């Protein structure tokens, strides 16, 4: 794209935002009737990402969640006894936490981009069962509760996690 097109776009967007600001100031200073207030749409709810507290809060939950999952025998975090055991070195666990944070942030409306493999490829051969998936979800819920995340946000996040079950579980 040429510089002149980019420059023109910047000028156009700047003028658009300036016009919006003037319009908003004019609107704010005009008297509003009770009927107009009742008819106006409710403000948009913040994204789940914002309601969870953003990247740092999500990373903190992931930190606690990872510790819980790693020590939970119902999860089988290192996949022992499966065709694809995982050597959970400190470096690999850090990558896991980074990817979990990116994934949760991204699916909840944050700007982060998940850099890991797709869910099917990442979990192929791990033979994760429904019971292990449920145990992992329970550990995530426990981590959310430890940070006093409201029930509504817990439910929304766990529903998003549930959408990955088909790509992760390999139980017949």
Q: Oligomerization state of this entry? A: single chain
- String of helices and strands: HHHHHHHHH
CATH architecture of the largest domain: Orthogonal Bundle
User: Biggest sheet, in brief?
Assistant: none
How much is the radius of gyration in Å?
Answer: 23 Å
- The helix content is 55-70%
Strand-pairing-aware structural class: mainly alpha
Overall geometry: globular
Annotation field: number of helices? 9
The figure for the number of domains is 2
Strand content: under 5%
User: Using DSSP, what is the number of strands?
Assistant: 0
Q: Mean of residue pLDDT?
A: 82
- Regions with little confidence, pLDDT below 50 for 5+ residues: 1-30
N→C terminal distance: 52 Å
CATH H-level superfamily title of the largest domain: Globins
Fold-level CATH name of the largest domain: Globin-like
Structure description:
The chain has nine helices and no strands. The termini are far apart. 65% of the residues lie in helices and 0% in strands. It has 172 residues and is mostly helical. The chain folds into two domains: 3-39; 48-168, Globins (Globin-like, Orthogonal Bundle).
Task: Describe this structure in a few short sentences.
The protein is mainly α and 172 residues long. Helix content is 65%, strand content 0%.
Write the layout of secondary structure elements.
Blueprint: H1 3-29, H2 34-39, H3 48-52, H4 54-70, H5 90-107, H6 119-123, H7 130-146, H8 151-162, H9 165-168
Helix pairs in contact: 4-5, 4-7, 7-8
